[in-house]
Design brief:
Elements lengths: L1 H24 L5 H8 L1 H19 L4 H18 L14 H12 L11 H25 L1 H6 L5 H5 L1 H24 L5 H18 L8 H8 L1 H19 L1
Helix pairs in contact: 1-2, 1-3, 1-4, 4-5, 5-6, 6-9, 9-10, 10-12
Amino acid sequence: MLAAHVSAATMFIYTCHRLFSSSKMSFDGQTRYSFASEHNRVLLAMIIISLPIAGFTFLYLERLVQLALIISGIISLGYIMPLVFRKRLRDIGVSKIILISLVWATLPIVNILDSPDIKLIALVFIEHFFFIFALTLPFDVRDQELDDKAQVSNLANTLGLKRLKTLLVLCLTLAALSVFLLYYFDFYNLGLLILVSIMLVAQLMSTRDLNTKKSELYYLFYLDSFILIKGLIYWIGISASQAF
């Protein structure tokens, strides 16, 4: 039920972002937002379908999980709509990447919020936060020109590519350290330690070249697939540990 809710809610937020941001973010040569403005009926239909599903599945979740999702939902809505000081949260400072990382790092811990071990919750959150933070940095590089024209905060424009690359390596190092600590405290088994470590190395190799322009397919299907791959790794690792 949680997976169904997260999928429907993500579709709702993503579609709202494309629909409500299309007028501000559409420029010559930018097809991502121009497509939204040209197909607003399709996006409205997706919103109408996803919102009831998200609401229905939400009712069957535990109260603590609901609370965590409500906080994440408010942040997500504030990210795309001017709920604070007549600005979207993504337009305030360099909050865009931080907010994305906070929301995505919350999802993996919702099932363990009732755990008495604070170390487990904290380390899982930290690991996913820095994993997502590092994964979003190449997207900021891609959006440099677009965000500059729209007067939207962009970490790549603020730090420059050299410092941004250093930040990317630091984030993945902290994510890897969290994985090791989770293994050290017996929260992760050896299989998870190895598989997640390999994935983080693959992520570093795939994102370290920030100077070269990439196609939209690289961002939408390749980089975003790391989230799916990580989810599969955890599913395989947990299933294997339960089997043995």
